[in-house]
Amino acid sequence: MKKMTLMDQLKKETRKSHNQLEKLPYFQALAEGNLGRDSYIAHLRALSVIHGVMEDQIMRANDPILGIVWNNGLCKMPLLIQDLHNLDHENVQDLPAVVDASVELTRKIRLRLQQDPMSMLGYLYVFEGSTLGGAVLKQQLSKAFGLSDNMGMSYVAQYGDDKRKHWDQFKKKMNSVQLQEDEKQRIVQAAHELFEGLMPVFEGLHPIGQQTPFYNATSLNPESGNQPISEDAEEINAALRAGKITWKKFPYYAWRYSDRGEQYTRSDSAWITTLVNYNWARVQQQIRWLGRVLSTRGMPQWMLEIHLQNMYNELIKVHPDKEKKYALLLEASADLGEMRKACFDDQALQKFSDQFDAEVGSEWSWRLKHMGALLGAAVADEKSGIDGAVSSIESWATDSRRFPDIFIAAVQKIIRDARKKAK
Ligand code: HEM
């Protein structure tokens, strides 16, 4: 008798779970056109929480067996972020049962990647397999919510008419992995774990029942886990507005960090609003910590200094009565400013900006406003003891795949001059 391949085994052993999922009220309601749009958005968010952690962890794991099947083309996060963006999900609140179930699955994913990375092939099987039902779901979604051209549906529409071709390629790769019987069993067990973990996700999506929708950090950034955020919708919206104002001032954000970065600004800003409930020492410690983290990722503390001012301005508009509390954010901004000004004050940064703009010309100075000042601010961070503050921005800004020689030369010149001038 022909030996069962891994894919045959997975199909046979998970068929029951697949049928159970398909029959859940969420999919029934979608098929009948009775599903709420917020439930679909919560579905995409739940998947982005799960895929966000899974894909990030798989890439870090760098496991040789996983590597036979995994390639970055299997990443779903860009599709999910795009769909959420196109569905203007910002003001849609989260469903507690769905958040708990998705975060619980991320806990299992981290554990499994630590203990048995190879078995994650079971997770890839379930998610790649689920693309096969995508065509059916896309039809139902476009009918239910009047969506078209994949707008808000790029996740279910992935691979378009080539779903089978991609599936066959995936099957071939999976079956090419040389595995012992117990290894196959561990992969099947992982597939079961995901199917079982997805049940409470879909059960929580519809009917919503007694759940009280709320803002969770994952509503703002699927990758933020259970970070505390304000429970006041007005405060959250004020924080999100401040984020938009800060991003508008620094086009560097969108250029470098795009949608994923925007999500972090959203969840970090909503988290910062919770800090005003603590004393000054705690606020100072937390903001200095965030400042260092962001600076080593290419965002000089000057950007946070400005953002905190924008947050204060937007928050006092919604709760002028809480001005005393919000003033803690102004104080934190001034605290970062003091560290910076010990090296470069506003005039000095403006000079670096003008110098850079003169070097690169109007096109580049328009596209990446304040670039010279950002480089000066990075040197100020370096001077105040943050390792990597300059290299993390220099490496990006001198990448010849991204920028012309004139730009790269200007970046290196400003950094050299700033280091010479740094007090
Ligand atoms: C109403 C919702 C769904 C529909 C209509 C649907 C439909 C389908 C279809 C038509 C296939 C191809 C079957 C075949 O070629 O033998 C398939 C395969 C599959 N689906 Fe679904 N699906 C749905 C939901 C899901 C969900 C939510 C998941 C998991 C997240 C999932 C996971 C899979 C997997 C793993 C396979 C591959 C089975 C194999 O090994 O061939 N499906 N689905």
Short account of what is shown:
The chain has 423 residues and is mainly alpha-helical. It has helices spanning 6-22, 25-32, 37-61, 64-69, 77-86, 96-115, 121-130, 134-145, 163-176, 181-205, 217-220, 233-249, 251-275, 280-295, 301-318, 323-341, 346-367, 371-383, 391-397, 405-421. Helices cover 72% and strands 0% of the residues.
Keywords:
mainly alpha, single chain, Heme Oxygenase, Chain A
Written account of the structure:
By secondary structure, this protein is mainly alpha-helical. It has 20 helices and no strands. The longest helix is centred in the N-terminal third of the chain and has 25 residues. Bound molecules: protoporphyrin IX containing FE. The site of protoporphyrin IX containing FE has 15 residues, from helix 1, helix 7 and helix 8.
Which spans have pLDDT < 50 for at least 5 consecutive residues?
none
Number of domains: 3
- What characterizes the major β-sheet? none
Bound molecules: protoporphyrin IX containing FE
Alpha carbon gyration radius: 24 Å
Full CATH superfamily name of the largest domain: Heme oxygenase-like
Overall pLDDT metric:
94
